[in-house]
Design brief:
- The chain is of the alpha+beta class.
- It has a single domain, classed as Pnp Oxidase, Chain A (Roll).
- It is globular.
- The structure holds flavin mononucleotide.
- The site of flavin mononucleotide (FMN) has 16 residues, from strand 3 and strand 5.
Length: 164
């Protein structure tokens, strides 16, 4: 076993790891919560499930924990300003983040982006604490399919995915 790596090395390595950009949303009573996230991964087909890694400091994490449900909207390439907003770049937090973008509700009343490439509605089945983040495994209860090219993040920049 090695001695492990430092924070800067981790960040530099992960910056090269391309990620599909999503907005994870949840409900906190009457209010909505959401964050931009690339830590989203397919888990299993039976049952259909995915996982998300959410920083415990965020209101989104608290909302998912409380309601045991979350949605994932996969962004298309014109949505990069929205990705920045939901990452906190506009200095806007909580419900105010939703003032931009065309937000609709799924059957359970959780927010989904109308123009998302894919919208997943998930119920939490497992929760795991991992360092600064909580890993939520969600069973996919519904999927909404849209159109467009996915937005990708790599080396601190947004990219449009194109075929070779
Ligand atoms: C491209 C990108 C990907 C991100 N991925 C994640 C992620 O997977 N999980 C997470 O907890 N935060 C992730 N973040 C950071 C959150 O978006 C950020 O901490 C959060 O929106 C802050 O919200 P607040 O200002 O309302 O607390 C990501 C940010 C960016 C720009």
């Amino acid at each position: 076993m090695g001695m492990g790596i430092d924070h800067a090395t981790f960040r530099a390595a992960m910056a090269r790891f391309p990620g599909a950009v999503t907005i994870i949303t949840a409900r906190h009573g009457a209010e909505r919560r959401g964050i931009t996230a690339t830590a989203v991964c397919s888990v299993s087909a039976e049952p259909p499930s995915l996982l998300v890694c959410v920083n415990r400091k965020t209101g989104t994490c608290a909302a998912i924990r409380e309601h045991r449900a979350f949605n994932v909207s996969l962004l298309t390439d014109p949505a990069s300003p929205l990705a920045l907003r939901f990452a906190g770049a506009d200095g806007v937090t909580g419900e105010d983040k939703f003032a931009e973008g065309d937000w609709i509700e799924d059957a359970r009343g959780l927010p989904l982006l109308a123009e998302a490439l894919i919208g997943f509605s998930c119920d939490v089945t497992e929760t795991m604490e991992a360092g600064s983040h909580t890993v939520f495994i969600g069973e996919i209860m519904d999927v909404r399919l849209g159109e467009g090219a996915p937005l990708v993040y790599e080396q601190s920049r947004f990219h449009r995915l194109e075929p070779l």
